[in-house]
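Readers of this paper often ask what the protein records in our data store actually look like. An entry from our holdings is shown next, in its original layout:
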Amino acid sequence: MARSKLSLPLAIVVVLHVLLAGLVYAEPEMDPYKILGVTKGASQAEIKKFYKRLAKEWHPDKNKDPGAEDMFIKITKSYEILSNEEKRANYDRYGQMDDTQPYGNTHYGHRHDSFYFDESFFNFPFNSKNHRDFADSKYTLHFNQYVNDVVPDSYKRPYLIKITSDWCFSCIHIEPVWKEVVQEMESLGVGVGVVDVGYERRLANHLGAHRTPSILGVINGKVTFFHYAVAKEHLRQFVEDLLPQRLVERVTDKNDLQFLNSWHELNKPHVLLFDQVPAVPLLYKLAAFAYKDYLQFGYVDQGLSETANLQKQFNINTYAPTMLVFKENIDKPADIIQAKGMKKQIIDEFMSNNKFLLAPRLVNQKLFDELCPVKQFHRRRKYCVLLITGDEEIFSFGNQAFLSFASTNTREVVRFAYVYQRLQQPLCDILTQNKDSVQSQPQVVILERRNAAGKAFFKPVTAWNGSEEDKQCLQEELERLQKDPSILIHDAMLPELNNEFASMFIIRWIYASYDYLSEVIDDILHNNWREMMPLLSLIFSALFILFGTVVIQAFSDSSDDKQTKPKAKDGTKAENGSSGSSSTSSRPPKKNFVEVTELTDITYMSNLVKLRPGHMNIVLVLTDASKNILLSKFAKEVYSFTGSLTLHFSFLNLDKHSEWMNTLLEYTQDAMQIDADDDEGANRKMDYTGYVLALNGHKKYLCLFKPVYTGEDLDSKSSEDEGAASGGRSRSSISTLQIHHKLDRLGLWMERLMEGTLPRYYIPAWPGLDKITPNK
C-alpha cells in the first residue's frame, strides 16, 4: 500500500519530466523554408521573389492584422538566413537560425536546474539600447558632439549621416548597402555618423529629420537630404554632389599656362593630377575640398589628345596616376608622387608638405599665424624673414632676388615671406619704425613671435634691392641668429593683418546664394514639404504682413477722409485743442489740462521719496519771474504724455530751494559741468531756470533735460522792436522770448525718456527739502 502511494507521485514526476524534456529539446527555431513558402532546393532568385511578395503583404504599415508585425519579423529573419549561403548551410546541417550559436547538437543558452531558456527567441533584427549594431555604435552622434565636432569639421570634409530608430522595419533593408557605402566613403575621407531618434530626439529635430530611415549630408555646416533610392551608386553620387562645383579645374594644352601662372594672384601652390579616367576621381575632389584654402587644383585627362603636350613636357607615366605640385617655378614641379593605388594617407602627406609657396605673401592673419607660429617652450624656435616691399614694377627685381634667396634655404626653423607695404601699412610702420606712414624703400626684417596677443621680437637687417651685398648681409645675420637669438633687440605688439582677399566676399556670397537656391528648387521638386515648412512659413508670413498693412492703410485713409468734413465745421475747437499735437503718446490724454503740483517740503515725501515703483515725477525748475511763461510752455509740451498712469508732473521754485538743486546735481560730474564752457566767468552763479528733472524715487536716479535755446522767431521779433522808442522794452521782449524757447525740445526729450534711451544719474540718497533758501 505504501509502495502504491509512493508510485503515484513518482509517475507524475516522470511524466512532467518527459513533457518538459520534450519542450526543451523540441525544435526551438521556426522553419524559414515554410515561412517563405519555398523548397530546400530553391534558388536565391526564388527566395528573393517570395520574400518581396510576403514582406509587402505582411508589412505592418499596410496590413492591420494584429499578428502582422510578428509575421513580418519571421519573414525578415527567414530571408536573412536563406539569403546568406553560410547561414543557410548552417541551418540545413544543424537546424540553427542564429549563427552566433556553436555548431553541433548542443544548445547554447541559460540553464536553470535543467530548464533551458533560449534567448535567441528575443533576438529580433532591430536596434535596441542593449543590442545595438556594433558598426552603428561606432558612429553614433550626440547633440554636443555634432555641434562641437562635426559642424566645424564639415568645412574640411563632408559628412554622411543616417537617421534610424528602434523597431524601424525599413532600416533593415538599407543596412547592407549602408555598410558597404560607409566602408568605401570612410576610406576616402568622408565623415560618417548615425543618429538614433529614440535617444537623440533633440539632434534629429535640429537636423530637420522627422522620419526614419533618412540619410543626409552635412558640408560647410549645411544639411542636405538624400531623396533617391538607397543604392551604392546613388549615395556615391550624392556625396560628390555635396562638394562645391568649382573645386577642380580641367587643364589642357590650351589653358595650362594660365592655370599655373595664377600662383602669384592667388598666393597658392598649384597641384595637377594626371589620370586616365575621364571624370575627376572622388578621392581627388575630397582632397581638393580639404586643402582648398592652401592649394589650387587642376585635373589632366590623359585620354584626351588636347593633353598630349602636357604629358610629354613633364614626362608623365600613363600607367599610374601622377600628382605634381608647382610653386613659383612653373617650368619645373616642386614635388611629385606617382602610385597605382593612390591612397588618402599618401595624398594628405603630399599636400601637407606643400601647403605654402617658397616665399608666400602675407595676405591675412591666418596665413601669418601658420607661417610664423608663436614660440612655444616644447617646440623649437621659428623665425620669419620678412621682405617689406611694394607691388610696383620697380620692385620686381628685388622681389625676384628675395625669392631666389629663399629657394636656397635649408633651415627648418626659418620661413621666408613678403608683404606689400601699401596693403599692410600698420604692420610695416611698426617693423620699419616709420612714424610718417610714408612708403619707404624695401627692407628685410627678421622677427620671432612670442605670444598670441601679438608680441614679437624683431630686427631690421638691411635695405633690400636684391644685390649680392644684400644677400651676403642677410646670410651673415641668419648665421648670427642661429648662434645668438638675442640679436633681435626690438620688441613690439604687432597689429592684426588686413584680409587682402576680403573683396572676394561678394563672389563667395553669389556662389552661396546659387547653392541655396539650387537646394530650395531640389526640395520643391522632391516634395520634401516637411523640411520646406520653415521657409514656406516665412514667405507666407511676410506676404500676410504686407497684405495686412496695405489693407489697414487703405481703411485708415478712407476713415480720415470721412472725418475731414466734421472737423472743418468745428475749426475753432480744433485750434484750441492743438497744443501738444507735435508729440506722440501711447495712451491718449484723459483730461484737457495738465495737473502740475509744486514740490515742497510737504509734498516731497509722497511725490518723490515714497513714489511707487515704476512711477516717475517730471519736475520743472523755475523762478518767480519765469513761472507763468515756463508753466504754460511746459503744459503744452507734456500734454500728450498725461495719459500715462506712471508719470506725475511738478515744479520746483528755485528761489526757495536752490540749495537742494545744487546738492542734488553734485552727485554727478556731467550735471555739474552743464554749460560750463558757455559761462563768461568762473565764479558766475549757475542758472537752472528751465531745467527739467525726471526723478525715479524708488530706484534713486534722475534724467536731466538741459534747456537749449533754438532762436526761433527771435530775428523777426527783434526787427519788429527796432522801431520802438524804448530800448528797454526791446530787451524785455527778447528776454521773455528766450525763456519761452528754453523748453522747445522738451517733447523730443520726453519721447526719449519713454523709450528708456536717456542717460541716468544715480543718487545715493535723496537730499532733504525742509530748508528754504533765504533771499539775498
In short: The mean pLDDT is 78. DSSP finds 30 helices and 22 strands in the chain. The two ends are 139 Å apart (CA to CA). Residues 210 and 715 are 74 Å apart (CA to CA).
